[in-house]
Amino acid sequence: MSEKISAADTYDWFDPLYARAEGDMTQVPWALSGPAPALVDWLAKNQGQGRSAVVVGCGLGDDAEALAAAGFEVTAFDVAGSAISWAKQRFPDSLVTYTAADLFNLPADWLGKFDLVFEFRTLQALPVTVRTEAVEQVAALAKPGGAVLVVTYTRDSDEVPDDGPPWPLSELELAHFEALGLSAIARKRFQKKSSRFGDRARIQYQAPG
């Protein structure tokens, strides 16, 4: 891997945004009122049964809690310590292990550890210049034979959008998961016409085992 990229170089604005919100979820542009619908749909057919899961960029914790309720043993991390504190306040009796961590400097004992890696909206919030390494870091969390579940906005061009974040992912960027040796075993495309980012995808990858 190339020289480590500091969180401050890519998303140092996350922590202040959560802190300024002062408990008001409407001030967090990407916060939903519950877990991601694409995750809820996936969990209807995929229960945890004690398997391990990690949530990348967990934000306020709704996706992590949904995974825990489905029987996964969940670790959830975010670079924003204020988001982690807020998630713990929202779910004081949670079974989830919430922790602040940097995607570009992951704890060594997390690498190759998890049965399921859930990534929702983190990659698309990162500049395209660091996206290849970010994909590698997400993939590195999966144990051999484990699953990486990605839910993201998509774009039909390899050209980098002028405005952002977020910057929807291109097919070429998503293909880097497969270049790393993961297999795309399920794909679902869907649209939300009311959003300026209407094209979306949920892709389940399997790590080589």
TrEMBL record:
PROSITE patterns: SAM_MT_TPMT (PS51585). It holds the Pfam family TPMT. GO terms for biological process: methylation. One of its GO terms (molecular function) is S-adenosylmethionine-dependent methyltransferase activity. InterPro entries: SAM-dependent_MTases_sf, TPMT. Keywords: Methyltransferase, Phosphoprotein, S-adenosyl-L-methionine, Transferase. This is SAM-dependent methyltransferase. It comes from Leptolyngbya foveolarum.
